[in-house]
Amino acid sequence: MKKTYLLGLAGLALLFVSCNDMLDVNPRDKFTNDPEFWNDQNRVLNYTNTMYSYNFSGYGTGIEDPYFSSLTDDQANPEFDNWTFTSVPGSTGYWSDPYTEIRRCNYLLDNMETSTIADATKNRFRAIARLMRARNYFQLVKRYGDVQWQDHAITDVNDEIIKGPRDDRDFVMDKVLEDLDYAIANIGSGDKASWNKDLALAMKSDICLYEGTYCKYRTQADNGKGPDNARTQKYLNECVNASQQLMEGGYELTKNYGEIYNSIDLSKNKEIIFYRNYQKDMLGHSTVDYTSGSTAQRGITKDAIDAFLFLDGRPLATTTIEDKSDKPEKVPYYMIGLDGKIVKTEDGRDSIRVDSEENPLWVYSMEQPFSVRDKRLSVIVDKFLAFKGYGHARTWLAEMTSSTGYTIGKYYTTAMGASPQEQLTYCNEIGKGYTDAPIYYLSRVLLNYAEAKAELGNATQADLDKSVNLLQVRAGLPGMTLNPEADPDQPDDVNVSPLIWEIRRARRCELMTDGFRYWDLVRWHMLDKLDTSKNPNIRLGANLSDVEGCEVALDGGYAVPYTATRTFDKKYYFYPIPSSQINASQGGTTQNPGW
Predict the structure, then answer these.
(1) Is the pTM of this model over 0.70?
(2) What SS3 class is residue 591?
(3) Each residue of 402-411: pLDDT tens digit?
(4) Which residue in 25, 209, 246, 589 is deepest, having the highest Cβ count within 10 Å?
(5) How far is CA 463 from the centre of its chain?
């Protein structure tokens, strides 16, 4: 029916992107809010599909961006990632886009009150709207702290809420929890790429872990509120309960860590709880292209590499493995042509790149250093270094380089395309990739459960064995115990138990480049670790001290991706409120501290 009608509705939502736009909107005549629309189940379903597309971008640009969220200590952008804001913006989608979605959700909720759709179906639609309202308010609270809570669609430019003050972030997060619980109770079943109860449970697991730990580690000086033990206990227990339901829900870890990131079909993957489906020549993404093409990659840092345990289960400072060198080995490297033929090197290994048998190129391999580490490392990071003067290509793809020398390999696959030429198209062109994107998956839930139990102080060995230790086994590491040996490299100002430290390490390694690291540092009150002057390893890359004719700037033998400095200030725990929002509110909305 009437595609233009639906587009008009979406356009209406865009007119009301947030309170800061409410005073100068266009006339609201793009959509007639009549009962016909809200009484039609198919139209309302299409309406919820708009929510789906925005909130679950997968490998697109959205709330969590795999690979592209590189303002962390795990990656180094060759163009340098400074703080998201260093001055107050006039306007920003970080503020307005969530409010667009919140208004879309509230519009549905308001109109379900009078809709003639069957009650069970109305409750499902309400559950979807409240789930997405919860998600978007969570994003606002993470970024801005106190924000206005709106439980109805703002349709009057003179509505008092527009000029009102922001609500306390704790109050808003309690409302988020109410929305999540309603969604879990009413959203019903669905497949892994559509609305379903397990999606709501996974979202609750994530959000409650964040809230519980944030409220434990926040400070009055930096966050405007000190720790709240009762609140911490409440939200961490909510996380444990939601996680446990999923852990008992029939999901299983895949044997191969990389499968959830580089598969063209995740529908039957037992680790996947919820995913975004892509289709060849219909709906594509660019994550494989940006991690395989000629654009310099946002490479993995030395600090991130050093986080991975050795196969004896010990960190760099205490490992018993004798060969713990991080120096690469120079090896012959050949190029394969578009005919797809593979040429063997003298030692019998399959070659990837060939100029000619008589004249091999030479590259630097991390195969040996990675072979004694956590198995995830060799999946996340390509075994060949790639940097200026020593780029390399995966099969027939364009020659790669990385800001740090370490290139990201876990999104690449040979499954896209039946021929070398198709591979070149689907792995090395913007918007052509069609691997499915994992959004919620069992490994995240296991990590949430283990961390919540450790933070509550009631973790048992059985808890570890059914959660984080399943990931340790897959990574080729010994299981974690309740009292692990302290890591001498744990910073003195990070006052947590060795158990919590090791669970955080496991989370960092398991989810590296998945888009969560920055907000993990926020909730642990460790955002100062992104200060490059105090933490120099986060601006260093691979050990290139023995590279012949090295063209890369070095510091102590390690690649230096950039020379700019990122200095921490406590104000960065919150984004600044856009000036247009403050002006539109006529004093009702105040600025965050320090901005």
Answers:
(1) yes
(2) coil
(3) 999 999 999 9
(4) 209
(5) 25
